[in-house]
Automatic annotation (TrEMBL):
The keyword ATP-binding applies. Transmembrane segments: none annotated. PANTHER family: HIGH-AFFINITY BRANCHED-CHAIN AMINO ACID TRANSPORT ATP-BINDING PROTEIN LIVF. The keyword ATP-binding applies. Belongs to the ABC transporter superfamily. It comes from the Bacteria. GO terms for molecular function: ATP binding; ATP hydrolysis activity; branched-chain amino acid transmembrane transporter activity. Pfam families: ABC_tran. Keywords: Amino-acid transport, ATP-binding, Nucleotide-binding, Transport. CDD domains: ABC_TM1139_LivF_branched. Coiled coil: none annotated. This is Amino acid/amide ABC transporter ATP-binding protein 2, HAAT family. GO terms for biological process: L-amino acid transport.
Length: 237
């Protein structure tokens, strides 16, 4: 397994956000964690990235325990997070935002080549290269946030609620893009989403998170057909 998380516990003071979550992602997989508001999805990604302390349990990446490793070192190891609501640097240009994704990397990356690849995937970012990021639409900012994470050639991409605040047409576009990154470019992706249908449709496997614990897991197609999931997460009766 590329990523293995065991008995993960994350708390904020007395608030237990995640308690005892177990899950894993193999190299080449696209896995999603679906769950309602407040189920603990963002906390899980922040725990894997090293942005919040893990109270108990272990996080292993490529067979090595990284539970206590600082976030910047996890980034060097090849883990990248696309945060909720993109959070690009509003006053920096699109190009400068992209460069922040490569900043401080020990490994030298062929920057020009990566930029050419990214501009091929996201033509709008090349067109808007010199504009401040705050002038981009929500969907374009989301593309920029994904591109910024990809510039470093990560081994594992963590994606937090990529569909939030986007209109349905853009949601489809972003999910198609994630599927293509996984299928055609071999990128391993762990997605957390409230939009259960869209994420299950592109995932190999999924975990269902309720109040900080995994309550169900399986192939995404099986979950799409499961009456309990259909009732609770897909708006079907
Ligand atoms: P959403 O989809 O609404 O973002 P989520 O599934 O990502 O939800 P988290 O953001 O991980 O869930 O939150 C899990 C629980 O932890 C919630 O009850 C939330 O209120 C609480 N929580 C999250 N961050 C903090 C914090 N910094 N301080 C206190 N409580 C927090």
């Amino acid at each position: 397994m590329l990523l293995e998380v065991n008995r993960l516990e994350i708390s904020y003071g007395d608030v237990r956000a995640v308690h005892g979550a177990d899950f894993a992602v193999a190299e080449g997989e696209l896995v999603s964690i679906i769950g309602a508001n407040g189920a603990g999805k963002t906390s899980i990604l922040n725990g894997i990235m090293g942005l919040v302390p893990v109270r108990n349990g272990t996080v292993r990446f490529r067979g090595r325990e990284i539970t206590a490793m600082p976030a910047h070192r996890r980034a060097h190891e090849g883990i990248r997070l696309v945060p909720e609501r993109a959070r690009v640097f509003p006053r920096l240009s699109v190009y400068e935002n992209l460069l922040t994704g490569a900043y401080g990397l020990r490994k030298k990356i062929p920057l020009e080549e990566r930029l050419r690849w990214l501009y091929g995937l996201f033509p709008i970012l090349e067109e808007r290269r010199d504009q401040p990021a705050q002038t981009l639409s929500g969907g374009e900012q989301q593309q920029l946030a994904i591109a910024r994470a990809l510039i470093s050639d990560p081994k594992l991409l963590l994606v937090d609620e990529v569909s939030m605040g986007l209109m349905p047409k853009l949601v489809d576009q972003v999910f198609d893009l994630l599927q293509s990154l996984n299928r055609d470019h071999g990128l391993t992706i762990l997605l957390v989403e409230q939009n259960a249908r869209a994420s299950l449709e592109i995932s190999h496997r999924a975990y269902v998170l309720e109040t900080g614990s995994v309550v169900m897991e399986g192939p995404a197609d099986d979950l799409l057909d499961d009456p309990k999931i259909q009732r609770a997460y897909l708006g079907l009766v």
